[in-house]
Every structure is written in C-alpha cells, then in structure tokens.
Amino acid sequence: MAVTIEDLYRNYGVLADAKDNLSQHKDAYQVILAGVKGGPKEKRLAAQFIPKFFNNFPELADAAINAQLDLCEDEDVSIRRQAIKELPRFATGENIFRVADILTQLLQTDDTAEFNQVNAALISIFKMDAKGTLGGLFSQILQGEDIVRERAIKFLSTKLKTLPEDIMTKEVEEYVFAETKKVLEDVTGEEFVLLMRVVSGLRVLQTVNGRQQLVELVVEQADLDQALNPADPDAVDRLLQCTRQALPLFSKNVHSTRFVTYFCEHVLPNLSTLTSPVAELDIQLEVLKLLAEMSPYCGDMEKLEANLTMLFTKLLEYMPLPPEEVENGENSASEEPKLQFSYVECLLFSFHQLGKKLPDFLLDKVDGERLKDFKIRLQYFARGLQVYIRQLRVALQGKTGDALKTEENKIKVVALKITNNINILIKDLFHNPPSFKSTVTLSWKPVQKAEAVAAKRLSTEEMGSGASTKKQIAPLPRRDARQIYNPPSGKYSSSIGNFNYEQRGGFRGGRGRGFGARGNRSRGRIY
C-alpha cells in the first residue's frame, strides 16, 4: 500500500515527539523512507523528512542514503533540487566520501538551477570535511564518466581558491597536490591547464621548493626527454602549453634551463617546419616569444656554446645582407630584403641573455669572416631601424590619452617598443668587446599601465592593401604612415601576445589522444 501525505506527517509527528526514545520508532522512519515511492507531494516531503532523522537510525543509513539518492534522480526537477539541497545533512563521519562522490556525479546535470544547487552542496560539505570531500571529487575525476570528470576538474579550478585557510589547511593542500599528480598521468590539454591552475594556487607551494616541484610536474608533461616531431600539431601544442604553464614559475631561483635547452636543441632547428595547432597562429613567432621570455631565468647550461651557436645561426637567417650595389652606386633592381622585426627582437633578446654567460662567444667562438658578415647585417638592420624609429616618433609625437588608444596608434606604440629594443641590443653587440649589460623589456610585456597594449588582430582589409600576408616589413619604403606601420600589427594580436591557449579548448581530441603515452607507463587512457 502506497504511503500517503497523512502517513508521512503522522510518522513525522511520532519521531518528533519521541525525543530521547527515537531509536525505538524504527518502523516510523521506515514509513518515511517508503515515501520516495509515492507521488510528487510525498517525495518532496520525504526529501525533507529523511535527512532530519538520519543520524538517529545508523542501522538504516544505507537505506536512507539510497532513498535520498532515488529522489536526486527523480524525473521532476523540483524534487531533485529539494533532495540535493538536503544531501549535505547526510555528510557525517564515514558518509562524507559517499555524499561527495554522489554530488560530484550530479554535476553532470544540464539544469542551471540544479547545477548551482550541487555546487552549493559541495561547498557546504567542504566546510565540514575538506579532505573527505576531495576524496569523493578525485574518485570521480580518476574513475568517473568524462562529463563528470570535466566538471569536477572545473569545480576544483574555480572553487578551491575561494575557500579560506581554515578549510584549505596545509594537510588538505598537500592532499590536493598528491591527488592532482595522479590525475596528471593522463590528461587532455584543457584538463592540464585547469589542474595547473589548481596546484599553482596552493599556498603550500608558494616557496622556491614548491615552485620547483611544479616545474618538475610540467617538465614531465612536456616530455622533454623525447625529440620533437615538428609535423605533429599535438606534440607542438603540448610543448607550447606546457611551456606557458611553466613560465610564471621561473625566477632567479627556479631556473628555465631544461626548457631553454630543449628549445635550442629541438625547436630552433625545426622552426620553419613546425606545424601550428591553430590555423591562425604564427607558430614561429609564438615559440620565439616563449624562448625570449624564458631566457632570463636560464641557469648553467651543459652545452652553452652549442646552444648559443644555434641561436646565432637562427638570428642570421632573420638579419639579411644589404642589397648589392651596381656600378653607379644605386641598389640593384632586385627586391629589397624584408626586415622581420618581431622575430629579430625575440632572437636577439635570447642571444643577449645567454650571451651573458659566455661573453667572449662572438670573439672566440665565431670565425673572423662570419663575425664580419654578422656586423654587416647588424649595420644594415640598424639603418632600417633608425628610419622606422624616426617615423614612429613623429607619428606619435604629442599624442596622449584617447589618441593613443586607436588601433592604428596602438600598433605604432608596439612597433616603437620593438624597434627601440632591437636598437639597444644591437648597440651592445657593436661594443668592442661586445657588451651584454643593457636591459630591455620585451615589447609584449607591460612596463606600466599607461603603456599596456592589447592590440586586436587586424584583418587584411583593415591593414590596407599594402599589408603583407607573411607579416613582414620591407625596409626603408617611401610609403604613407598607415602602410608603414600596419604590416607588423598581426604579430601583436592578443591571442599571440598573451598565449591564450585556454580559450582554444586545450589539446586536440579528448583523453585517449593528447599528451601521449610516455615510456613504459601503463595508462587507462592513452592520450
């Protein structure tokens, strides 16, 4: 016989009046449990009554949790929300893990209000037992369905940082780090970014040793022991994302040596053949920017001379010789070389940073003819720079405030930063012996708020008909200002300058594809 509303209220009254003798009225509680088999009204009442007396009948704990779980899966969303709202009341003692596990599974709902209810319930039980709650979350991340795993990781990445220190204790944070390392054995690119966000925010890791541990995590994911396949966009993307996650961790005490060495040995030799993981991405400029950002934090290198030689060789490729002159002293009719300022800024900065470690490199390690050739290229590049710098300064003279915020002037400001940086670095190299003392701030790195530039990528139409599809600058052209300064604009777009990989949906494919199996490690999901 089905339980009615009257039955539920009558038995609720029995239990409410029993006070200290509740355990003697097990039959009354069983009637309330049976309410989950009734109609909508009975179910809504049962969802409220079951947790109220849950702690008084430990022998019926499993039956009570299962009954509430039935309501959490009801077809009526209002019943589900009521049942979920009450779930934290079951989170006592050994039940905390099970309740957290159930709530984590419920994150897969597509109903916004219900999803928010689940989030609120999880936060509620976090305040009761953070470690137990994390146990349920990580259990589903490691073993649950993909949609549950994805949402559980996002929950951790957004909610943990909002919890106070009295909940996220040292012990709890160490548990998060230990469990996250297990998850990182098999992740997609997007999961990797989110999990690094989780562990990077842990207070227990805000020490030199902690940051070094985080770098080691990234090194393992980046697979720096394996040669890079430049034709594999997944491999290239993995390296870019891992490097970008490691960048904020580097300092004078936490070195970037492993990454800088890998870039010099495996990336630079394959620069022209790298396959971009994103169609609109200038992959060559992307990796050169990363190398430049890492180079100040490079420690002692085993193969410093070889790596400097590779940087020097690559720099020569982007610094053309001046065009040949005919007998009357005029340039030949051949096309003038292209000056690729953005590439040269990155390479010259990286060479300058590593050159500090071997200041006699150009004099002792480069033969006389090659050094003479290099200086000719430097002089030609410097002449082109001077013209652009003068034109840029004239174009920007007297402009302040809103006038500097137009797209065209933002581009000119960045172009002026690049050309000034290169000019300073070239002057250092012209010293005899070459000097490595000057300090510059990379053009895409903000110096102060007023100079921050976030130029949007301009289309070819916006850039004007004179724009180069290869984003190159022709030196010394007598063109109007717009044609002069628009070509480099594509190199300073927000998507490149800020390495905004998270917005690209992580690595190609889901688990079962991305990071790839390493060594002999056995995995449930081979990425």
From TrEMBL:
One of its GO terms (cellular component) is nucleus. It is found in: Nucleus. The keyword Cell division does not apply. One of its GO terms (molecular function) is RNA binding. It comes from Oryzias javanicus. GO terms for biological process: apoptotic process; negative regulation of apoptotic process. Keywords: Apoptosis, Nucleus, Repeat. SUPFAM superfamilies: ARM repeat (SSF48371). Signal peptide: none annotated. Residues 464-489 are annotated as: Disordered. Belongs to the API5 family. This is Apoptosis inhibitor 5.
